[in-house]
Design brief:
With 114 residues, this protein is an alpha+beta fold. It contains five helices and two strands. The mean pLDDT is 85. The structure holds heme C. Heme C binds next to α3 and α4.
Length: 114
Amino acid sequence: MKIILLVFLFFTLSLFGSDFITPKEYAKMLYENPRGISCKKCHGSDGSEQILGYYINKGVKTAYKIPSIQNIGFKEFKNSLTETKSSKSIMPNYSLTDEEIISLYNYIKLKEKK
Ligand code: HEC
């Protein structure tokens, strides 16, 4: 019985599959799990400034901050995702397509308004 239900579910999903995920859901999925390394882990759920941790710099406790990725222009956003990162940067290099970058950018813009 369970199997029949599953088959039915797959059938309906494949029929209407394209309607089950909105562009916003797609973008959320990308942001939270692109190529296995989530943007969210470092940039938080909305891309605002984050403190990843603390380290001791010359005896002073210093916060390791990740800059906000809200309020940046599309060009800048795209550049930081396409340029090869400096070896100092902890941000991984992703090879995202233009569509994926646009989708991610719009997602952050939506988060910004709240
Ligand atoms: C391991 C942590 C980490 C992950 C994962 C990560 N980032 Fe970053 N990101 C950083 C850090 C740190 C910076 C600050 C600049 C630098 O060190 O390169 C940064 C910078 C940026 C910038 C440029 C901000 C500016 O002001 O120039 C953008 C845009 C950005 N990240 C977007 C993303 C997106 C989108 C993802 C997911 C596809 C992502 N990042 C994943 C750590 C991360």
